[in-house]
Amino acid sequence: EAAVADGWGEPVTWLRTAEEYFHAAGVQPVASACRAALRRAGASAPQRRDGRDRIPAPLRTSGVTPREYEVFVLLPDRPGNQQIARHLSISPRTVEKHMASLLAKTGRQDRTALCEFAAEWASDTVRR
Known about the structure:
- The chain is mainly alpha-helical.
- It contains eight helices and no strands.
- Helix 2 packs antiparallel against helix 3, helix 5 packs across helix 7 (about 90-105) and helix 6 crosses helix 7.
- It folds into two domains: about 1-40; about 50-125, Orthogonal Bundle (Arc Repressor Mutant, subunit A), CATH 1.10.10.10.
């Protein structure tokens, strides 16, 4: 932050290097913080989402993204938006958006139906 504010060094290069390192290391909260700092510095910083191959084919063909799937797998326990947000290091508003998207993409009417669908999916996965 200070390097950006004071105009010294190459903070964008440093942040990109750090973001790549922490993303590869699986430390998503730090990688996310690096992307946020890049955006504040005026640089582009697209989200990185590994894991499309972990999304079951029916959900993937419905357009479920890796981040939405991360929300989906938490739903059998029926957590609130705040709990999901804390677990994934995102805002509750972002959770709301992911929930709305999951409802639309899975064709479920409400959160209860979506949680039940996620629970069924989880129990089917355990049986396989």
